[in-house]
Amino acid sequence: MKYINELREGDITHDIYLCKSVQSLVAKNGKNYLSIALQDKTGILDAKVWDVTSGGIEDFDALDYLYVEGEVTVFQGTMQLKCRRIRKCREGEYNPADYLPYSRFDLDTMYKKLNEYINLVKDPFLKKLLESFFIEDEEFKKAFKMHSAAKSVHHGFVGGLLEHTLSVTSLCVKFAEQYSFLNKDLLITAAICHDIGKTKELSDMPANDYTDDGNLLGHIVIGYEMVGERIEKIEGFPHALGSMLRHCILAHHGEYEYGSPKKPAIAEAIALHFADNLDAKMETMRELLESADYNAEWLGFQRLFESNMRKTTY
Amino acid sequence: MKYINELREGDITHDIYLCKSVQSLVAKNGKNYLSIALQDKTGILDAKVWDVTSGGIEDFDALDYLYVEGEVTVFQGTMQLKCRRIRKCREGEYNPADYLPYSRFDLDTMYKKLNEYINLVKDPFLKKLLESFFIEDEEFKKAFKMHSAAKSVHHGFVGGLLEHTLSVTSLCVKFAEQYSFLNKDLLITAAICHDIGKTKELSDMPANDYTDDGNLLGHIVIGYEMVGERIEKIEGFPHALGSMLRHCILAHHGEYEYGSPKKPAIAEAIALHFADNLDAKMETMRELLESADYNAEWLGFQRLFESNMRKTTY
Amino acid sequence: MKYINELREGDITHDIYLCKSVQSLVAKNGKNYLSIALQDKTGILDAKVWDVTSGGIEDFDALDYLYVEGEVTVFQGTMQLKCRRIRKCREGEYNPADYLPYSRFDLDTMYKKLNEYINLVKDPFLKKLLESFFIEDEEFKKAFKMHSAAKSVHHGFVGGLLEHTLSVTSLCVKFAEQYSFLNKDLLITAAICHDIGKTKELSDMPANDYTDDGNLLGHIVIGYEMVGERIEKIEGFPHALGSMLRHCILAHHGEYEYGSPKKPAIAEAIALHFADNLDAKMETMRELLESADYNAEWLGFQRLFESNMRKTTY
Amino acid sequence: MKYINELREGDITHDIYLCKSVQSLVAKNGKNYLSIALQDKTGILDAKVWDVTSGGIEDFDALDYLYVEGEVTVFQGTMQLKCRRIRKCREGEYNPADYLPYSRFDLDTMYKKLNEYINLVKDPFLKKLLESFFIEDEEFKKAFKMHSAAKSVHHGFVGGLLEHTLSVTSLCVKFAEQYSFLNKDLLITAAICHDIGKTKELSDMPANDYTDDGNLLGHIVIGYEMVGERIEKIEGFPHALGSMLRHCILAHHGEYEYGSPKKPAIAEAIALHFADNLDAKMETMRELLESADYNAEWLGFQRLFESNMRKTTY
Amino acid sequence: MKYINELREGDITHDIYLCKSVQSLVAKNGKNYLSIALQDKTGILDAKVWDVTSGGIEDFDALDYLYVEGEVTVFQGTMQLKCRRIRKCREGEYNPADYLPYSRFDLDTMYKKLNEYINLVKDPFLKKLLESFFIEDEEFKKAFKMHSAAKSVHHGFVGGLLEHTLSVTSLCVKFAEQYSFLNKDLLITAAICHDIGKTKELSDMPANDYTDDGNLLGHIVIGYEMVGERIEKIEGFPHALGSMLRHCILAHHGEYEYGSPKKPAIAEAIALHFADNLDAKMETMRELLESADYNAEWLGFQRLFESNMRKTTY
Amino acid sequence: MKYINELREGDITHDIYLCKSVQSLVAKNGKNYLSIALQDKTGILDAKVWDVTSGGIEDFDALDYLYVEGEVTVFQGTMQLKCRRIRKCREGEYNPADYLPYSRFDLDTMYKKLNEYINLVKDPFLKKLLESFFIEDEEFKKAFKMHSAAKSVHHGFVGGLLEHTLSVTSLCVKFAEQYSFLNKDLLITAAICHDIGKTKELSDMPANDYTDDGNLLGHIVIGYEMVGERIEKIEGFPHALGSMLRHCILAHHGEYEYGSPKKPAIAEAIALHFADNLDAKMETMRELLESADYNAEWLGFQRLFESNMRKTTY
After folding, report:
1. DSSP 8-state assignment for residue B258
2. Nearest residue, CB atoms, E265 vs list A266, A277, A308
């Protein structure tokens, strides 16, 4: 398979790509044509079907995998594929992993690590809560494992939510070791649950876009409510413990202007906010360094950091 | 009964007051004494029992109604009651309305007006939701009717939550008349429900203080969750309608820095935010004007308005 | 007449358009050509005269109505009219209403409504002030009736200033009904006068651009001064009343950062600010909803609202 | 005469002081007493008349000069004068200069300097405008010469407005010399007029408090309007020149948050803003250094400078 | 020895205290007296010598250890010691550890731990730099070991700078383990050096106040310069390495408004800023929890956290 | 010579230009080509060598002066030079002044003026410090004289740093005359030294780009350190004087958010900040006015001034 980032002007494709979106439009000459976004894990390619009535174009929808024959052209500086034949593919003809950005780490190995963190929790109520999501709820498990953690910024890939959650939890465990007054059980639980609302804020990969609820409500209060509903079902769960755990979720963005309706009011909420924020910044930095030119030292102004950023070299 | 704001140095009291709080402290000479805050609807009075072992002092707790004999003294510029006798009173000996600030309006009349607003709602799901709270749930009704809308700022009196809710709803009805693209049913429902979380954020009068959940979670997300739980129980309630209604509750403070985790994203959420904000400002202004000296024109710098405020006179 | 938003590539025009602006430029080959912005109420069209010395092009200026023959072409994705003949039209050949965006409401009907509001004012001085502008001053009346309320944002059409003024006054009347301590006469007068400075801040339609004074002084202080000059001429006008009315005008943007040199210091100034702000937001929302695709739910990030905005649908 | 800052506990006064304010109050024992603020140029003294019915106390009002006999006591750490006799004085019995803070510079000498600056202006319209205020208008001249420039911060003394105006104009003359593209006539005129609204924003010394118009409108727009009214009366005054001059007045605070309804849009407005701001800071610093202990190096946190400030010593 | 927080009204002292400051003042009756601040590790006590000429008062200065005989009185609600005898003590009469707040951890043990961190650094230049400060420079070592890390907020005790430095370094080591692209040698070195400027910004304990250089220059640029001077002396130290290390010091406050003249531009600078900020917040929280009442759950509004803070209990 | 701003489509060049940068790239057809930025004092020209293997193209690097034969074409609206021959030139073939923007003032005359300012300084230590840089240090003198004061904003030309320094010093001399409490020697010295760090923050013209140290450290702390190193070498230089001088350098941006790690704490630091800020704004305004169309009155929104700016005309 020739990946999208390897295509050059004049190439002829005979490959399968994922259809991210498709629109039927009217050209300036009054004729209908299709404008398609094809995707693989290396990027996105603009494709056109100019003659929709010609024989070679089967019916298809967004998120179908398509076998496409066409010619790579360059229009106004960007590549465009003129499609001659399109055919919908069956499962088995392609490997989904070729079409979506994936975590560097194996999903199952990561999930096993998550279970180890859950086993660190001694408090029976918190443990039961975690198990009800991450062990007993198969639908949730599947969604959580495959989800990205973001639409476009850091961790925007399959397994991103799991990878970010593990990394935040790992930091929290270290913080609890260094600062003994932190309640380790509460902090680990909050770390593992802090972003579970993202399973509903963002639609599944490959769409990976904000859902209606994501836009209207946001992952913070969605997650807050998901945890609340489970706590209701656990008999004897101490009310104050539930409130403190849910406070950690509400406050994990740290500041009102980042969408937290409460500022951290307990030590564990502060620690969680730091862990979340640090991991977001470190992963952004990692992705930036990875995508940088080999020889570049300065990488340009980055909004998240409000600074021109530099590789560490000497 | 002599009200607290009528007491003068040298007066001897033989009256019943509400005990807002009581603390046992150690004086500099090593002896125990009691420091008590007595309250009636006109103010709060600092009282002391210097000799706790003397015969006349019965056992009592905060929120008891107390018959108190003592002498009014002045210490460092503020009045203080030296108590000689304290006796706990039974229901019937006093009229609670003398001890708490009350709305200017009759509670039952206001509640009837609320029902009229509910009857304006045509959408069967929204109507059912409102009825489940305000008509069918006796415990909620009682709490909602008696609650204040704030600890210390505007509407900090019995019936304040109801009065504020009515006033916001009245504005929203007017807005819906003037701007026809507003969804009147959604807007009225959101107005009526916007502050129901305050029934759990603040404890009942006379305590009227932030609860643990109030501090950790806040009335915005508490109300969001209360509405969500009820919606779950109404068969066929359209998911998008529930999300839009709950978005209005989340966004009703209008800005992140005032604790809303989402900015208003639909027209009804904007209208609700304006109604809530305007009513808060108008009631604050009304209370300020009411408490001002008769002859004063300028009333001093007011933080809420970031300005020295003036009576309108000419 | 074929409106600008109906033109397609290849069309030949034989219609009258308003010339919004015209520039004489030098092409890269050294020849002069004309670049013209043609306008009707549906949009703006880029037109070129490549051969200015050919016989068919008469002399004309910006704001003339022009009969234009030419061919619609597409250049770099936008439509362009290649003009062959241009002729200046006389009054009577065209209907100005076809060339300017107009209010949805009839100007005379709106002006009658404004008179009704003026008749609500009982205070003889305020009434005399309003009459001196809106009844006795013919030049002002004409300007006020036709003016837009903005260059590019909400109410940017003929009659926009009148429509916005009516809407703000209507809200203020409602506020005065709900909050009885508001001085209704003062509030209505302030509402009607709050934006009269815009008659000098913006030039007449169709130019509708900031004047020199508009840029240097702004409509807030221009209006403040217009009101002050009239008050001078009304014998016995109470000084404090004049100052409070003019304070309302100065403070109607509510915040320093929006160009108000004073924060609202009286209740009526607060109410006016809310009415002005709410009407601006509601009209912006109305225009946004009107221009949205029929099927779209989410309408994209809107700077005024600092949010992705959504149609209310369920 | 013994100045207020020289009085000590136990002293008996036989001196004349200015009555800044007087209030009739009711003591805790129910008797009336008078609370008086006495002032001289060195400070303010709290005085009481406990027995208003005793023979020695004549009738008087705020701003009268009073001969006072009494005894200096100390109450809760501050000095208090127990008055036995009070008599209203006639003009001639006292020297007003002993009772008000005055500029270090002679008022007439300063006014002469102001005339010299006026004579630098060549433009006939600007010159006529300046003369109409500062030469022909006797009432304005008197007010301008005696006024302070502030209620409590820098230049809060008789002649302060004149001193500040001279200093700002002196800086502007220097700026016009260094930056030749600045219009010297416009800049000098703007500098001389920039704060004339303060003659109406603050009441005369010794009251020196915000007037009703000062609070409602502020000196910026008051001065803008004063200049506008005079321009109206000067035949042929170029409109654009008037607008630019008045823009300089509106914009001289430089930022919206400091009450300017427009940001500086011409070079002269920028220069004026810098001169005004620098002179305010330098005079604040001068007053701070003058009032500092001889040995102190660090002078404490100063809000205007957002810093702990230091004397320059080495 | 009776500690200051154990003294009660009427007690007679025969103990040694540290003199934090002493002033000679003039009483309202014209007599001189001494106002002294006595300190031990539990608090500060206001003491007075009313009769400085009586026989029992020896000469002394601030920071002397004084044997004091006197009587504990209460004046306006706070305790005051009326001194009858004061005698300067010799070294050996007292244990300095009784008079200063100390770290919970042993200074030598902590310093050993610091050496272990230094030994983790492999880069020869960075190692040499660290050794030149922390191993070879005896004067610096002593100052660094004893210094507090702040005048009044977190870590304001003997050994505070060392304790904070260790804690920040420990976090940085953990971050380098978790995020492998971080340069561990650079990060550890930056962590150890980030606050060395505090040895010159604050005077030694017990004075522990801002020095002249501390106020004028601040610990960030002082530390930046200290590191620069040492690097100059290490032959071959790579210039870019020195700049990146010093960048980390400059940027460790993370934001301009907290006094960093540069925002973090390399990953290590980000990580250091997080470690510094987290440790400051955790130690503040620890001190807050330690000083809280045993039964209190809510600990009041804390400016650093912009929130009412709560103990974690359930 | 035909300057870049005079070239037109179709012209053939036979001229020398400065090579600002050169990159070897791969075209979409897989062939190598060169993309070159050519510069003279009137602008920058995009040039291409499509056939790098053809005979006429000599080897060259960025910052070489190149004789270029080619044809001017227009591609996507901007001019592009298709190069046929390129030859590296020797010194003498060209006049560097044709290739770089220069100050309007003669460099030597300006440097003489700088010496006059140095001679105003009476304090022997400050004078010695200034001489060590501006008289004795030939390398520094040369760099300082030729440097720009900025990469892209005001004073971005050869001699810009010197011109700005003189202008700031001139203002400071005037301020010291008007405000006698300012220490003239300290203020002049601080003015002359305030931007010397720019000699290391920006690389030499024509590159004139941020250096690695410029990005990591910034000119404020670089200048602070340069001054510190020289002071170390002047025997007896008073420590406090050095700290105050260096404080002025640190604080000259006036606000944390503009990169000053300290706010001005002495009067001279305030005065320097005003002089620096005013000169930056006046020079920006001068450059804006100079580049404006002759007939334009309004010059468009300017970010530095946060306003649409206007020429002063009437």
Report:
1. G
2. A308
Using the Cβ of A29 and the Cβ atoms of chain C, whether some distance falls under 8 Å is answered with yes
* CA of F29 vs chain A CAs: smallest distance (Å): 7
pLDDT computed for residue B293 by the predictor: 79
Nearest CA in chain D to E212: D298
E215 closest CB neighbour out of D9, D74, D308: D308
**Closest chain A C-alpha to F282 CA, distance in angstroms:** 28
Q: Which of A63-77, D160-174, F229-243 has the lowest mean pLDDT?
A: A63-77
For D75, name the nearest residue in chain B, comparing CA atoms only: B76
Q: Shortest CA distance to D91 belongs to which of D118, D110, D112, D63?
A: D63
ipTM of the complex: 0.86
b/e for F192-203, b at 16 or more Cβ within 10 A? bbbbbbbbbbbb
Beta strands in chain E (DSSP E): 12-26, 32-40, 43-49, 65-75, 78-88, 298-302, 307-310
Does residue A185 have a pLDDT over 70?
yes
Q: Decide if F305 contacts D264 (C-beta within 8 A).
A: yes
Distance from C-alpha of C278 to C-alpha of B182, rounded to nearest angstrom: 13
pLDDT tens sequence across B157-175? 899 999 999 999 999 999 9
Which residue on chain F is closest to D302 by alpha carbon?
Answer: F265
Q: Tokens 């140290």 — which residue?
A: F213
Q: Mutual orientation of helices C124-134 and C239-251 as an angle, nearest 10°?
A: 50
- If phi > 0 it is left, if psi is from -120 to 50 it is alpha, else beta; for residue A215 that is alpha
Give how far Cα C13 sits from Cα of B11, C58, F137, F195, Å: 96, 17, 74, 63
Are residues A145 and A157 in contact, defined by beta-carbon separation less than 8 angstroms?
Answer: no
Q: How far apart are CA A281 and CA A288, in angstroms?
A: 10
| B215 touching chain E per CB within 8 A | yes
List of chains touching C (3+ CB pairs within 8 A): A, B, D, F
In degrees, rounded to 5, the angle at the alpha carbon of residue F194 between the alpha carbons of residues F231 and F139 is: 65
Q: What are the residues facing C307 on neighbouring strands?
A: C302
C-alpha E27 chain-centroid distance: 35
**Which pairing describes strands A78-88 and A43-49: parallel, antiparallel, or unpaired?**
parallel
CA closest to A210 among chain C residues: C298
D185: amino acid identity, one letter: D
Chains A and D touch (3+ CB pairs under 8 A): no
Residue C21 has pLDDT above 90, yes or no: no
d(CA B32, CA B303): 40
The pTM of the whole model exceeds 0.95: no
* Residues in contact with E233: Cβ distance below 8 Å, sequence separation at least 6, in sequence order: E132
pLDDT confidence of residue C28? 64
User: In the complex, which subunits touch D with 3 or more CB pairs below 8 angstroms?
Assistant: B, C, E, F
d(CA A202, CA C69): 53
Mean pLDDT of B283-307: 90
Partners of residue B8 in chain D, C-beta under 8 Å: 28, 30
Cβ–Cβ contact F74 with C under 8 A: yes
Of D212, D244, D262, the CB nearest to C218: D262
Phi first, then psi: what are they for D16, rounded to 5°? Answer: -100, 130
- Establish if D232 touches chain E: CB-CB under 8 angstroms: no
For residues F308 and F314, what is the distance between their CA atoms, to the nearest angstrom?
A: 18
Beta bridge partners of B73: B80
Mutate to test the interface with E, among A290, A309, A312 (most CBs of E within 10 A): A312
Q: Quick check: A288 contacting E, CB < 8 Å?
A: no
* CA distance linking residue F20 with residue F206, whole number of Å: 7
Alpha carbons C188 and A84: distance in angstroms, whole number: 68
Closest chain B residue to A217, measured at CA: B247
Burial of A120 (0-12, 13-18, 19+ CB in 10 A): middle
